[in-house]
Amino acid sequence: MNPLSVSPEPSPVAAWVGxxxxxxxxVICLYEVATGQSTLSRLEQKPEALQDWLSQLRQRFGGxxxxxxxxxxxxxxIYALLSADFVRLxxxxxxxLASYRKAYAPSGAKSDPADAVLLMEMVRNxxxxxxxxxxxxxxxxxxxxxTENRRQLVxxxxxxxxxxxxxxxxxxxxxxxxxxxLDSLQACDxxxxxxxLEALQQARAGQIRQLYREYGHPxxxxxxxxxxxxRQARPLTTxxxxxxxxxxxxxxxxxxxxxxxxxxxxxxRQIAVLFRKHPDRPLFDSLPGAGAVLAPRLVAAFGTDRDRxxxxxxxxxxxxxxxxxxxxxxxRWVHWRWACPKFLRQTFHEFAGHSRHWCDWAKALYQRLRRxxxxxxxxxxxxxxxxxxxxxxxWKTRTGYDEQIYLKSLQKRNPTLWAEIQLLxxxxxxxx
Length: 432
Hints:
Nucleotidyltransferase, domain 5; alpha/beta; 3 domains; five-stranded mixed beta sheet; two-stranded antiparallel ribbon
């Protein structure tokens, strides 16, 4: 069947639009419900062109609802479309489109016009399988973008510190201990002033003491021991070529690392401002081990639309934590879910890892899974799977997490795990 020749049928919208977006030009397939006619057109990737097109749609259909289907749920195109109150947005997972494409093009052929048609048809033909996208409020969307972009900066910081570590091991290994954490301003100042052991040993004791004191070095006695350690240190190499290139490379990496640390700090401040005034802050603040970094990320993951998920299972699937089961005949296999937003999956994976240091049942479950042969990451995925069920209930009911209530329930539902919790050593109180 030709997707462009489908007969018209009743619809709550005046038109269905498939929009295949691109950096330079968008391809649009518009199906008018009243006539059953489909047309293909192209639109330049310019704000003016997109706004003119929306104005034309409003005028053509008298402000009646128009459904637009596309492959993203964020970005410049989405935010431009949000300005039109008559538009109903249907973001589609690219993997879903790829599967749908195979039915029409088994050969694997792909083109922008064909994708625009397929986007329109897959939702128009089965609207009950898709949901109109309801954007979160501006503050929540800001949290979503800020937390994700912050993570990108952290990844860059990690890459730089890994480079520094590898480099220092080749000619100046003492700095790995003496400079402090390499992802800190103290380390940046230390390495900038003394990029070689020779430079450090030639420095005045007062200079070294001053730097350590600026960053809160604890006591004079420890400072004395540190100075003695510096005095007695022996170089790994005296090769002038290695020292020159090493010092210059350290300077280059530090010059990249320092502004990056400042940028992360600015992101942290802005995220904290938005998180403090978010209506769901008390809920996510109650989570053990979430803290100042992960709590805003969890808020961003769930959003504010309580109708977004109809079940905890839907949330587990979207967040990439629920495993995928495939079965053919007598063969059955379970594997990792690849088609998911990677940042969301990472968020719940990291939270699960933190929670086992703060939460007794999480720690006991993690230890049980490891004893049963699960690897570290596999155990954390199981833990994250359980946490999403708990968080979904808290989020739906707008109630904070109460570990005592959960433990009472666990005692009845899983007495074996409860018994294992009782064998854990007393947990030291931590400050979030």
